[in-house]
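Many introductory courses stop at the sequence. We go one step further.
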Amino acid sequence: LALSCRMEAESLSAPCCCTKTKSYKASISRRTLLSKIPIILGGTCLIAPQTCHARNLPQSTGADESQTGTVESLIPIVRMRQALKEGPVSNLLYTIPRDEQLFKRLFDEYSDPITYQQRFLDQNAFLVYYTRGFDGPNRPNIEENLPERQTLQYGARNEAWVAWEALQVELQFAKEHPDDSNDVSLYLKQLIAAVNAYLELAPPENVRQAMQKINQ
């Protein structure tokens, strides 16, 4: 086992003889090197995985974060709820973004942005797991004090998209089969509930001011 480990380490720094005129040394990043060298824990040889990401962070939707948390960025969500409640339902396909990225972007431009702490945890999930979040002596655990509201915001946003995606299918179906549209009301209620859940996370004063600007 020790011989195998040594041979593996030597192979990483071996010169490259791919050409006759020049000899190059392989350029290996620290991440790649650590993924190749076994970790010795308590006499057991463990092979670290090449990559380890928690993948808990939502993908970027290209949202403009310059007005995060402002009344202006909340207005599209309040306007969406108003359209859902007041109807007509047939107009929703023309007033609400049908593309997933554009739909979620409306929410992301108001939602709390992803923090450095969250990015670090996502990119170093393997390290954080085995150190149990240790961040140095006399320092708080790195997994503590995570932004709870942001998690709830993204959860409500995702629930809203799932309902809206299903509602789009039902609305298209209802155009061709107007006598069979029972599921339209079901997914409409789910979408309204998800949008309400999102807006409940915002300060009531922000929601009130957004409604005032819409109704002016």
